[in-house]
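Format notes (please read before filing issues)

Several people have asked whether sequences and structure tokens are stored in separate files. They are not. Every record keeps both together, in the order shown below: the sequence lines, then the token lines. Line labels are part of the format and must not be stripped during preprocessing.
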Amino acid sequence: MGRAIVEDALRTGAEVTLFGRGRTNPELFPGLPRLVGDRDTGDYSALCGGGWDTVVDVSGYVPRHVGQAMDTLGDRVGRYLFISSHAVYERTGVAPGSEEDTPRRPPVRDTEELSEATYGPLKVACEDDVIARYGTRATIVRPGTVAGPHDSMNTFTYWVRRAARGGRVALPGDPAQPVQVVDSRDLARLVVQLCTDDRPGVFHAVGPAEPTTLGQLIQTCARAAGTRVDVVPVPPEGAPLMFPLVRASWATQQRSAARARRAGLPATPLEVTAADVLAWDRARGEPPLPLGYTPEEEQAALAAVSPTPPPPTPA
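Then the structure lines:
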């Protein structure tokens, strides 16, 4: 996400300053000013001088992160754009097409341990603090699942790689389940446009433009790879937890992107995203993915449903 935002900002001619620990991909963007600090230890000393029209906070996970950053930056920034998450929302009572005013979960401030139970509520607290400090100079972007080259989470990459192998694909879920992924470059374009327009508010960053299902997504990945797949639903029992893109609550995968589209969120076709992810994954050597089925686990799941059909008998 951060990489894509920097690339898009540079494309528009913006002057970009990087702030981080200097450990991840330090060779990127060698011509840009790079300020070194550490949010975990509270080291923001590199930000004590200078001023910026906008700060884009892509790594604020707990209230201390955003609080210390805002204390350091003060009014030396014009706008504070905070990257949040759909995990801020209540899990029940959500209807398809939900918008940015959907009720959020209660904020949490008494822990910095990130877990399924605390991640969303901690983001709620971060959002509240940014808005309380900067008011109309605050912007909140809530991405759904982000997909694209250089994605360290590999959630979408799992299906791209699996579809590229072709054949019978085990899905421990319902192929009809709605699914939303947003291309990282579309997300970046939205963020930079919001900064350029100096636009306040809260925005869903979700895609693709046309509604799709998990089964259709796998088929789209196969088309991008030039393969054929047969999606086979298998029981979820025994599948790895948090299986890529499989969700129990379908309505949470049907959020409205209307406000973000009006503000400039593009819509890269899903097949283009899949092709680009496939090319990137192959270029990096297709390292092992720590999620989804292993080939052996998938074969066992498929065999438990129905044996692999024998090859046709020659005439």
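For reference, the curators noted about this record: The first strand starts at residue 18 and ends at 20. The longest helix spans residues 119-134.
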